[in-house]
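Entry for the shared binder. Reason: the reviewer on the internal report wants the predicted structure included alongside the sequence.
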Amino acid sequence: MAPTTLDFYEDLAEYYHLIFDDWNEAIERQAGILNPILLAEISHSSLKVLDCACGIGTQSMGFAKSGHRVVASDLSHAAVARAKMEAAQRELGIQFFASDMTSLAEIGDADFDVVAALDNALPHLTSGQIRQAVRAIGSKLKPSGLFIAGIRDYDQLIVQRPAVQGPAFYGKAGERRIVHQVWDWIDRERYIVHLYITTQSGETWSSHHFATEYRCLLRGELSSALEDGGFERVRWLTPAESGSYQPIVLARKR
């Protein structure tokens, strides 16, 4: 049995940056993709943004560096603690909360211009939880506020049913790093991800293993949940259109 989603991110928080070749460069790159999308949708240079699946801060710090007022939350206390430390080191004024995106009860404000849920966070949720999350997210947005999410292209993956992702090789001799995933399919739509991060320090190699369950959240299901949950103008951007590594969905609160 795979650890819970919370277990996965609690354990991964210390190592999460290692899945990137250069995490700081990834922060800048993703900000360079996401910020133009936000500004094209809402023509203000400084937006109030809630990153409700912030992890260790990859997108929330990029939003803050782009001049937005950022509140960030995550299910994992360990991830929030790491993100808070990283933001403080960069002198970024971000408010952080530990909060489940299906309720967001710890977030007091309800006047955000944007709520974001990126890096494939939503497919951890069941169908019922997706609808709870949509309602919670809508409750934090001002009228006509924007929801933005990024998820894997499950419309293709549910057909392809891949067994392995990667490996990716980073670093140089003496400090190499290998990152790969093994996917164990439970049934047609659910699978367990085994994430392996193997690091070299001199002549010594260490391997870290993290596991959790995802499900194939199809575009049609998420679009319907958004429309039923009080959103309109739902549209999808492909990676070719956005430059992002995952499809992006945009929706506006009615």
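Summary line for the report: The two ends are 40 Å apart (CA to CA).
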